[in-house]
Design a protein that fits this description.
Elements (H helix, E strand, L loop, with lengths): L6 H28 L2 E3 L2 H9 L3 E6 L3 E7 L5 E7 L6 H8 L2 E4 L7 H31 L1 H6 L7 E3 L1 H4 L10 H15 L1 H7 L6 E5 L6 H11 L4 E5 L10 H16 L2 E6 L2 H4 L10 H16 L6 E7 L17 E4 L5 H12 L10 H6 L6 H17 L7 H13 L10 H20 L6 E5 L10 E4 L10 H22 L7 H16 L13 E3 L8 E3 L3 H28 L1 H14 L1 E3 H9 L3
Parallel strand pairs: 1-4, 2-5, 7-10, 7-11, 8-9, 9-10
Antiparallel strand pairs: 2-3, 3-4, 6-8, 12-13, 12-16, 14-15
Bound molecules: adenosine-5'-diphosphate (ADP), magnesium ion (MG) and zinc ion (ZN).
Length: 606
């Protein structure tokens, strides 16, 4: 067990120090003393004795030590071999010196045994272990192999993660579901009395950065039971079979400590669907099989709850999701407007804010941002405040940070020719004007032609009034037309096309395609599912379910929507050409204008 480990090295140190003292005692100190001892022959001793220069004599078993004081009063020690001299005592008495015979120590066989056998043995064992440990530490993976299969799950106890549910903003439903698990582990009798069974496995599912790991840490902090935490990637081992051994060891430890919680973060790294074809991963599958076996093998009543987190639930092996395994799913979704505001508030507590900060406005402007993004926005805002030499964070810092986090850093000193800048200004005003003239669009909040490192040369920020869950067909079409506004303005004014519209084209095409294949918003196909999404939470790959003829019809339908939207955007700009000129010039001069400025110019009669 890891928690006991720290004591061992201390024992080693004590032993090491003991050895050193012992060695010094036996070899170094006596020889230090010897330096001042002169060996003389027996005759010299007798002569010195008779001349009365000897002040003290000590008769030992095999030698005689004596002290002579020189003229300066300094004592010098001499030794001489002990002769079989029956007159010695007489001589000493006559010379009138202090003399004595050392009383031999009572020999203690037990003490000798301990001193000469047991202690050295311990010392050698201790030293050996000490060096093996050191070597393991240095060699990392190899060391793990030596402690074959020992799980390196960390045990968190209450105080250690320092996180509680109070550190998680929003996510009320997830918190509720987890609070129940915590409640069961803390007071199992209460649940048993009614006969309620607590799920064996709880799977936290949601996009990256929504606070799944944070929630698990909060559970550790809230519950007063041991918490074993391991990340799926830690199972990926050097040697085949190690992952499985780790799983076995983890569950063994957990069952000894029940009631307790096991948390497997990023379970998709080991829990991917098994396949038998080429490219199957033996090691991972062994690990997964072991996990399944262990989950079946223990009795939920013992009080071991397994928590896991993933942002790719669809890649998990179905066997993991069967009843008796991860039978409870807790969605951890991207925060809604209220959730975003709560998260911003929570993280804003850590920084000094100006009095007039409006976090609600920031929350409105960040639809689709995750908890991690929002935490990042607050931090970036604080960094900007420092750069600006302020002692508190103001609204502008946060607004700027939205764009930093969402669109990359500002690139003020990037060299852009005046002509390009003019084109970009018309392009952005094109978006804004179409958005303003159409119904079903979100109001324009900010327009800027300051480039970002993300590659965006300009940026039109629209902010929804409320939080939008559903998008209707009119809104979707208006959004596509707004994307088209950029290129349409370029065509109208400069009679040419630039590469600046690449991102708009991509986004509008995706939306138009989704309208046809997923949302049932086209007349041609209506409510027909033509596509499935594989990576629900990573916005990833989708695959067509249709024949190539149908695929061609889909393409034609998408093209129809895009062309119609483009025509609409173009005609709006054509009708408002004067305003387009006026606004573009204004933007070119100011570089960044607010939604209010934009609306004011738009509303003024010219
Ligand atoms: P996940 O595991 O879902 O990818 P994390 O738990 O690692 O996300 O979240 C990363 C960071 O984002 C957290 O440490 C926290 O600072 C912040 N965060 C995310 N969601 C929340 C939330 N609901 N409340 C407060 N902070 C959050
Ligand atoms: Mg995580
Ligand atoms: Zn654009």
């Amino acid at each position: 067990m890891e928690i006991k480990n720290p004591r061992k090295p201390i024992l080693y140190y004590i032993i090491t120090v003991l050895i050193i003292v012992l060695l010094l005692n036996t070899f170094v100190f006596p020889s230090l003393l010897k330096r001042h001892i002169t060996q003389v022959d027996y005759g010299t001793f007798l002569r010195e004795l008779e001349q009365g220069r000897v002040s003290r004599v000590e008769v030992q078993d095999r030698q005689i030590a004596f002290i002579i004081r020189d003229e300066r009063g300094k004592e010098n020690i001499y030794i001489t071999g002990r002769m079989d001299d029956p007159d010695l005592v007489n001589r000493l008495y006559k010379a009138n010196v202090n003399f004595q015979k050392v009383i031999p120590k009572e020999a203690s066989p037990l003490l000798d045994f301990i001193l000469y056998w047991i202690l050295p043995m311990f010392i050698f064992i201790g030293l050996g272990q000490f060096f093996v440990k050191r070597m393991q530490g240095k060699m990392g993976g190899i060391g793990n192999a030596m402690s074959f299969g020992k799980s390196n799950a960390r045990i968190y106890v209450e105080a250690e993660t320092g996180k509680t549910f109070a550190d998680v903003a929003g996510q009320e439903e997830a918190k509720e579901a987890l609070a129940e698990v915590v409640g069961f582990l803390n007071q199992p009798e209460k649940y048993k009395k009614i006969g309620a069974k607590v799920p064996k496995g709880v799977l936290l599912v949601g996009p990256p950065g929504t606070g799944k790991t944070l929630l698990a840490q909060a559970v550790a902090g809230e519950s007063r039971v041991p918490f074993f935490s391991i990340s799926g990637s830690e199972f990926v081992e050097m040697f085949v079979g190690m992952g499985a051994a780790r799983v076995r060891d983890l569950f063994k430890q957990a069952q000894e400590k029940a009631p307790c919680i096991i948390f497997i973060d990023e379970i998709d790294t080991i829990g991917k669907k098994r396949n038998t074809g080429p490219g199957s991963n033996e090691e991972r599958e062994q690990t997964l099989n072991q996990l399944l076996t262990e989950m079946d093998g223990f009795d939920g009543d013992k009080g071991v709850v397994i928590l896991a987190a993933t942002n790719r639930p669809e890649t998990l092996d179905p066997a993991l999701l069967r009843p008796g395994r991860f039978d409870r799913r807790v969605p951890v979704e991207l925060p809604d407007l209220a959730g975003r505001e709560a998260i911003l508030k929570l993280h804003a507590q850590k920084v000094k804010l100006a009095d007039n900060i409006n976090l609600n406005a920031i929350a409105r402007a960040t639809s689709g941002a995750s908890g991690a993004d929002l935490a990042n926005i607050i931090n970036e805002g604080a960094l900007r405040a420092v750069r600006m030499g302020r002692e508190y964070v103001c609204q502008e810092d946060l607004e700027e940070s939205i764009e930093v986090v969402i669109a990359g850093y500002q690139r003020k000193n990037a060299v852009i020719s005046m002509k390009d800048k003019l084109t970009i200004a018309y392009h952005e005003i094109g978006h804004a004007l179409v958005a303003a003239k159409l119904n079903h669009t979100a109001p324009v909040h900010k327009i800027t032609i300051i480039p970002r490192t993300s590659g965006a040369l300009g940026y039109t920020l629209q902010i929804d009034e409320g939080d939008r869950v559903l998008l209707n067909k009119e809104q979707a079409l208006a959004r596509i037309a707004t994307y088209m506004g950029g290129r349409a303005a370029e065509e109208l004014i400069f009679n040419t096309a630039t590469t600046g519209a690449a991102n708009d084209i991509e986004k509008s095409t995706k939306l138009a395609r989704d309208m046809v294949t997923r949302y049932g918003m086209s007349e041609e196909f209506g409510m027909m599912a033509l596509e499935t999404i594989n990576n629900q939470y990573l916005g990833g790959d989708s695959s067509l379910l249709v024949s190539s003829e149908t695929a061609a019809r889909i393409d034609a339908e998408v093209e129809k929507i895009l062309k119609a939207s483009y025509r609409e955007a173009y005609s709006i700009l054509e009708e408002n050409k004067e305003k387009l000129h006026e606004l573009a010039k204004y933007l070119l001069e100011k570089e960044t204008i607010s939604g209010e400025e934009f609306m004011k110019i738009l509303a003024a009669d010219s």
